[in-house]
Amino acid sequence: MGQLKIAECGSEGLNRGVPEIRVLPDILASQVAAGEVVERSASVVKELVENSLDAGAREVMVDIEKGGMNLIRVTDDGCGMAREDALLSLERHATSKLRTSADLATILTLGFRGEAVPSIASVAKFRMVTRQPESLTGTEIIVDGGKLRDVRDAGGAPGTVIEARNLFFNMPARRKFMRAESTESAHVEQQIRLHALAAPGVRFRFRKDDRTVFDLPGVVRTADRVRQLLGNDLGGELVEISETIGNGMQVSGFILPAQHARKGRRHQFVFLNGRPIEDSAVSKGLVEGFRGNLQDGLYPAAWLWLEMEPQLVDVNVHPAKREVRFHRPHEIRDLISRAVAECLKPRPRIPLPQVTPQSAGHSELAIESEETVVSRAAMFHQSQQELTMLLAGDSQIEERLSKAPRFRLVGMLQERYVMFESDSGLVLFDPKAARERIIFEQLTKGRKAGLETQNLLVPVLVELDPRDLDHLLREKNALLEAGLEVEAFGGNTLQLRSLPAFLEMEDPKLFLSEILEETLHGPASAGKFTFERLSRIIASKAAKRVVPRLAEAQSLLDELFECDLPYCAADGRPTLTEYNRKDIDRRFGVGRG
């Protein structure tokens, strides 16, 4: 009966003039596909540059006019195409990169669907000139809104030139949704920068309205490409992630220190087998690698290159191919986390040489090893008194030397910051941020060695909402791992029985209330009982109670530089900020005229 009813409804619909189902014309099908492939000018540039790289180009030049609305031209020196292939590239789903369904699982090229060129040609006035290096003549093809207008022989350098003029001229509704010219140009530039990072060995030139925006020569090292785009100032702060290998995958790249973390992930650049991608597992791995050194809601700046067996990832899950699906996302997240954590570890100090009177008085000329030269440089920076003790054979001197930089204490700023003088200028020191870093690392290191706790003489009692009480009691083991022993006391009351041994609290009840409030209802409450987050909250709340004192500044600085990451608090805030003498002089106009 159900089937009969459906058939009758269908027949009724036809009688009422409902259109019949039919196959779309090729041009209309390409325009529909263009809705996914060609979102804006940057989408056209992305697809054409990817084809150039797949063609083996060593130089790619992109020209645009009016944000790409009037003209997009991509020129490369790749392998070019014969006439038959050039014509076939305008057919939907025509590609040289897939033969069987099995090939879909082993894709290493940037393009593979065969939709980009016909989609672009269907929504623009399209021109292609292509020539293979071994051919005397090339081929020119002109398409107007999906309609083939002309095919003829043409001259030209080996490679391919593709022009797309008057984008969306035949789709005025789509054209109206384009943003301002400056916005579209910015998206195009960002897209080219992504490809320049993905293929550092290729020269990229970008011209906007007949003006050269940048010309990036090909480089051998990825670090050089990052510095080309990042600039000298930030480029000097890059921390290299050494190549780290996992199960069928490897990662390498660069990060900036935690103080450069920002909201959002726009400053994270990730490349998988040469393809720019976005993926939450990668971002989580980066954050985890900083081990609680980032403020909630901030993401580190990073440039990552991932190499992976193609069977371990599906690159065909997003219309614009920006996102991928890893078959083992937890493994790639753990690999990135491990690689980042390793590169953030402080480098071992150079051991000072044990110089005896006999060796110091040796008169024979000898060739010094690299280690000896470096050690001599380290010795040069020691004070005269320390050098005298060293030459006297004092083997305990290295243990007594502070790891902290050598600053001269100047004074306090508004009873909040400590001022030091360095060789380069003025240093402001934040004792609260320093204490936060120290407490955080005491907690994390104590977790491995077995955290010592102190029992309170009188348990602290806190009244809670029933839902909060239930949640905390279910997470009591996580709290205990961070040094907080809690138990039910009856009704809606929670009792705190112990704290980490190194914490000195005048008001444990207020301290506990602040911790519980932040843990239960603070920002980023997802995964709120992880050890790193609890440690960060405990360190932050405890450090707020620190009263900065000038007499304690130097000892606190020495204690801070016993930490693994002394330059930032647990939430990523800087502990020290230096104002360079040159910048200060510039601010006051010293040296002008």
Number of helices: 22
CATH topology of the largest domain: Heat Shock Protein 90
The biggest beta sheet is recorded as: 8 strands, mixed
Rg value: 32 Å
CATH class of the largest domain: Alpha Beta
Per the principal axes of the C-alpha atoms, what is the gross shape? Answer: elongated
Beta strands, count? 24
Q: Provide the residue-averaged pLDDT.
A: 77
- Uncertain stretches: 1-15, 349-400
* Helix/strand/pairing category: alpha+beta
- Strand percentage: 15-25%
Q: Span from first to last CA?
A: 97 Å
* Neighbour order of strands in the largest sheet: 5-4-3-6-2-1-7-8
In CATH, the homologous superfamily of the largest domain goes by the name Histidine kinase-like ATPase, C-terminal domain
CATH architecture of the largest domain: 2-Layer Sandwich
How would you characterize the overall build of this protein?
- This protein is an alpha+beta fold.
- It folds into four domains: 26-216, 2-Layer Sandwich (Heat Shock Protein 90), CATH 3.30.565; 222-344, Ribosomal Protein S5, domain 2; 350-358 and 366-402, no CATH class; 408-593, Ribosomal Protein S8, Chain: A, domain 1 (2-Layer Sandwich).
- The protein is built from 22 helices and 24 strands.
- The strands form six sheets. Strands 5-4-3-6-2-1-7-8 form an eight-stranded mixed sheet. It has a five-stranded mixed sheet with strand order 9-10-15-12-13, with helices on both faces.
- The N and C termini lie far apart (97 Å).
